[in-house]
Design a protein that fits this description.
With 183 residues, this protein is mainly beta. 14% of the residues lie in helices and 52% in strands. It has a 9-stranded antiparallel β-sheet. The protein is globular and about 55 Å long.
Length: 183
């Protein structure tokens, strides 16, 4: 990668076949060990990715934020079941993986991830969700919702949440919570 020239890249629309992945922009500069990426601004089917990174030939690293609106829309766009909704979400990443930037895979990632989701629903929850809804009725954080006579979180399927926070440590694709997950 040290032989790659300095470039400022801005692409209005990236296509994979007929499928639009979105717009991409970044700056690429040769470095002592390989190549450095800065000003990363990618729109990947509703998932916005920003930050910086680098590639030394053996490993690629990335430090930045992935963010979006409704997580269910992003999951659908990428071919996953829309099991979680959100008003907005972000994931701060400080990670690396073996090989080139194109060789990224969740099963090869190592580093830290800090996820935050705001106002949504875990749709694939069954069984214990009924009891949790009762506790939701008594939740002091939802008093404003109750005063507006909004009980949708109690009658809709799944488990509604105001905030979810998770900190994960990844080691070669193995993800472990580094602090308790809070909902």
């Amino acid at each position: 990668p040290k032989a790659l020239p300095a470039m400022d890249i801005a692409v209005a629309e990236v296509l994979r076949g007929d499928e639009s992945l979105g717009r991409w922009a970044l700056k690429m500069r040769p470095s002592a060990n390989g190549v450095a990426f800065s000003g990363i601004d990618l729109d990947l089917k509703g998932l916005k990715l920003g930050g910086e990174g680098g590639w030394d030939g053996a490993r690629t690293w990335y430090k930045g934020r992935l963010e979006g609106g409704n997580l269910a829309d992003v999951l659908l766009a990428w071919g996953f079941a829309p099991s979680t909704t959100s008003e907005d979400f972000h994931l701060d990443v400080d990670g690396s993986w073996p090989g080139s930037p194109a060789f990224f895979g969740l099963n090869r990632l190592s580093g830290t991830l800090d996820a935050r989701l705001r106002k949504g629903q875990l749709r694939e929850v069954d069984g214990g969700a009924q009891a949790l809804r009762i506790f939701g009725l008594l939740n002091f954080d939802s008093i404003g919702r109750r005063l507006r006579l909004d009980f949708s979180d109690l009658f809709s399927k799944g488990l509604s949440y105001d905030r979810i926070k998770a900190q994960l440590q990844a080691t070669n694709g193995l993800y472990v919570t580094s602090q308790p997950l809070t909902v």
